[in-house]
Amino acid sequence: MCIVGATIGSLGVGAIVEITLPIFLVIYPVIIVLVLLGAFDRLVPNAGAYKGTVLFAFLVSVVETISSYGITIPGVTKLILHLPLQSSGFAWAVPSIIGFILGAFLHRVLKAENPEKSTFGMEEIGVEK
What we know:
Helix 2 packs antiparallel against helix 3 and helix 3 runs antiparallel to helix 5. The protein is built from five helices and no strands. By secondary structure, the chain is mainly alpha-helical.
């Protein structure tokens, strides 16, 4: 492990930033929404709200990241470029809110239809919403 660290360290700061930047661009919206959801946990109605929020934040951040490297998805990239707060780096904010609402709604609907499968597997990790 020490050899890996020394090898990466010898690349220089510029190379390390260049390698890790896409990873950080993808995960920072997900981390932000998880921190916000955790801070306001008692206002989150169910586990579906978590999943919808994280999924939408992740999808938008992936599309934004790959488009910043010149790879475009016709229609999707153009849509994301027109989202509110996109110019400030928060294109994921509105889709995350939509994901929160959709996730909570779907969780509630699926819970009503099939109560034993209402947690989407969350009980396995100790979440009991």
